[in-house]
Amino acid sequence: MTIPKVLTIAGSDTSGGAGIQADLKTFQELNVYGMTALTCVVTMDPQLWSHNVTPMSAELLESQLDTVLNGIGVTSAKTGMLSTVEIIDAVARKIEERPLKHFVVDPVMVCKGENEVLNPDTAEAMLEKLVPKATVVTPNLFEASQLAKTAPIRTIEDMKAAAVKIHETGAQYVIIKGGVKLLHEKAVDLIYDGQEFELLESERIETNYIHGAGCTFSAAITAELAKGADVRTAVKNAKAFVTAAIRHGFPINSFVGPTLHAAQRLYRD
């Protein structure tokens, strides 16, 4: 029996809904073997649910990457929260040493519920050193505006303009996630390959239980690519996976509710 091997280079969400925890749950559901390189640990104040991010050292991250990339090998890999420029530099060096068949960059810049970029310098470093190596980059509206250096994105035309600018930096495919701030009646994601735009529409699900949805989406793309899907098929399968996960999201305390990663397996709706 062979199973595709995939890697997530991301932060640990102590609450379990996002980050490496979400990635591993997604990998398991989609029948790929998940491995990890931890970039930081995110903890929350139990009373206020404000976030505290503690980065790993770049040296420790490089040791983790050596373990997986040189000691085992992977079919595809993804990034999540990369909280310092030094960590981004370390990831870029290792990817250059061991080029990947598929590399998915999820440019996480804020924790859910927070409004400010964790480290403003990381957006520029990501744009310069990781996005050009990406098979797929998956920003949300805020992240896309940061990478494209545009005003806040509110319309599909805004999404298209940002996608063009991000693609020009070297990513093969740009996937911009519409989210709740997009002025549209449906949940819309945009695919751009440098030539064609494609809109993926699904029902807009009214829920607050979306913690980890972006991580889950990018992890699902990574898994599908590892299994041999082309990019557009991988994105469409991932959208179906995360839509089911959002539809069956649930609360874990009075502050937050994650998506249900097993939803597509458990429910057929």
UniProtKB/TrEMBL annotation:
Please list the GO terms describing molecular function: kinase activity
Task: List, for all copies, the residue spans of the domain called Pyridoxamine kinase/Phosphomethylpyrimidine kinase.
Answer: 13-259
> Which leading EC class covers this enzyme?
transferase
- What keywords were assigned to this record? ATP-binding, Kinase, Magnesium, Metal-binding, Nucleotide-binding, Transferase
The UniProt record lists the EC number as: 2.7.1.35
Q: Which InterPro entries does this chain map to?
A: HMP/HMP-P_kinase_dom, PM/HMP-P_kinase-1, Ribokinase-like
Catalyzed chemical reaction(s): pyridoxal + ATP = pyridoxal 5'-phosphate + ADP + H(+)
Give the SUPFAM superfamilies listed for this entry: Ribokinase-like (SSF53613)
- Could you say which protein family the record assigns here? Belongs to the ThiD family.
Q: What is this protein called?
A: pyridoxal kinase
Q: Which organism is it from?
A: Saccharibacillus alkalitolerans
Source organism phylogeny: Bacteria, Bacillati, Bacillota, Bacilli, Bacillales
